[in-house]
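Example 3.
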Amino acid sequence: MSAFTSPQSGSIRQPLPAARRKRPDRGLLGAIAFIASESMFFSGLFVAYFFLRTDTSLTIRSDQPLHPSIALPLFNTLILTVSVVAMAWAERGIAKNRQRNLIIGTTIAAALGLIFMLLQSVEFSRFITAGFTPNSSAFGSTFFALLIFHVLRVFAGVTFMVIVLIRALMGQFTQNRRSAVQACAAYWYFIFIVWLLVFAVLYGM
Amino acid sequence: MASVSIPIEKPGTWGKVAEWLTTVDHKRIGIMYLASSFFFFLLSGIFALVIRLQLAAPGLKIVDQNVYNELFTMHGTGMIFLFVIPFLVGLGNYIVPLQLGARDMAFPRINALSFWMLLFAGLVMEGGFLIGGTASNAAWTAYVPLSTKQFSPQVGMDIWLFGIVLLGISSTLGGVNFLVTIYTMRAPGMTLWRIPFFTWSIIVTAAMILLATPVLTAALIMLISDRNFNTQFFTTANPRLWQNMFWFYSHPAVYIMILPAMGVLSEVIPVFSRKPLFGWKAMVISTILIGVLGFSTWVHHMFVTGVDPMVERFFMFTTMVIAVPTGVKMFSWIATMWKGSVSLKTPLLMCLGFLSTFVIGGISGVIQGAIPIDMQVHNTYWVVAHFHYVLFGGSVFGIFAGLYYWLPKITGRMLNDKLGKVQFVIMWIGFNTTFFPMHILGLEGMPRRIATYAADRGWDIPNLIATIGAFMIAASVLVFMINYVVSIIARKGEVAGDDPWEGNTLEWATSSPPPVYNFAHIPVVTSNRPVYDKRVAAQVKPEG
């Protein structure tokens, strides 16, 4: 008999006076709370963007791409959308204990995340060669702040997916033990939503 | 049952140090939080004493005016970011899992990370004194353009900003940890309404930290990048961008600093009045309301900066509305003591100190919340008086109430009650001597943040009185430290036992200090006063 099974420990598992509901997983809850905090970080950046855009004391020079070419970011949106679908497919897969879905889905999602980062760097260099940089004006600073902080989150998300992938290859996830996958997927969805907002605001408005 | 004896090696001195450095136990992390933030309290307090010496008489030159700017900046940020917030978080770290009947926080390693980031962030912030010789001197608000490279070129400003970014990450992680812990690790039977009140106030505080801090972090990163990478966030733009982002964090920060102290009061007053907390649900709801409304008042710091008058009126309204849930709390505490069998031990005295001074700070807050009055008193010593009545009269008295109440649990020894009373009397008189005259100075027009003043302004006598008071506060803190050394380090204090105060909540159901695992058996909770229930049951039916 192990030292950890005392006579009372049996009674803890009994139904208790006040109904004890099954509580959500800690890891997933922590991820959701962290995402709430992250969303406030981006709210701060968006507020700065709109504040500087609507500030009449600022003159935005006409050579600055207030409406830059939309083709590349639109393609990037497509890439991120497919990546999110792949991640969702992987996450749903492990919920049904399908290891193959998890591994293939996460691989696709992470690879597409990498392609997104690559294309973003192409976009950055395009802006900079056109003379539009974070240093050129207050507008340029907020414009790039949203793009750069978003792509940093993509990097974090891809890192998270690589960790999930390594753990998946080691067979660490099952139907009942998948909170890291859920947390990773939740963070990836969040990054996708932020991208949609960044894209709509920076390129659409 | 076969018993196996495992040889336990007693750690040597270095082993003990290594144990503390690598610990993930919420109690040890809590103690390290308390110790390190008390260190920053003493440091920032010494800065305050130098400030008061400089202002004791007109025309003094005890410190250079540039050094004076560093001193009040580091006094303010030290007290706020490195003492009050982390001290209350540290108290929460120690007490919350015990009150929940849990064995640790939900993420023990993240908990350790939060502490170590806090400690090093604090050292980085203070490091400006050593690196380059000049710490941050743009006041705790660090308004642009004063805080830009042009007007604050020192590297001390950069590392101060970087330190606050680190602090933000530390407290965000702490906030996540508290929320998940409280949500998932409550003892069986502990429904939402049975969560102890201190823990309730930590829930609201953690949520506020989680939602407010990232906005400040964004602003700080923007400022750092302006200073070092030539971006243009604040250089050409309207300076109100920084002010809005700063106060969007820093006004909720006021409630982050006061709500846990209010939580301490809501634990201590019922125990020392031998009555349940009056209006439990109203108290919880008012805490949540303060948390929500706390996000909608920040513009009242900017009434003189040319905000649209309609916007100003909205924020004047919300500022005054937030006094309502605060008033609910004041009346609930008084009603809790009403006709109770009150025992005037030090923890309760500290609570009375809170009630008597915080109410002045609260009322002066409503007064200056009115736009026309704010226009007059803005940037004067009236404001300094107001926020010290809230933050010292509120948070610091709350902190000492919590210390006298919980140190017996943390250390296993009682602090000396007589010395505690001496400390209370000196601190209460010293506090009012220091800060009440500042109301008068403010109304007479003395501006904040000036290194000296002319003799013909008539500000010398209130300033001298305030300086005397500041040294009384220092003496009272000294009395506390003597009390701690005598009672706890020299082991002269009485042994506390499990439950010295006949408390209500689960931290009193385990030994003092609690074992590493907190509870041998996770207790089952049937009300919001589980230990009281157990005590009453034992009296009705003696154990057979």
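Residues 76 and 116 of chain A are 6 Å apart (CA to CA). Chain A has one domain: 24-50+84-204.
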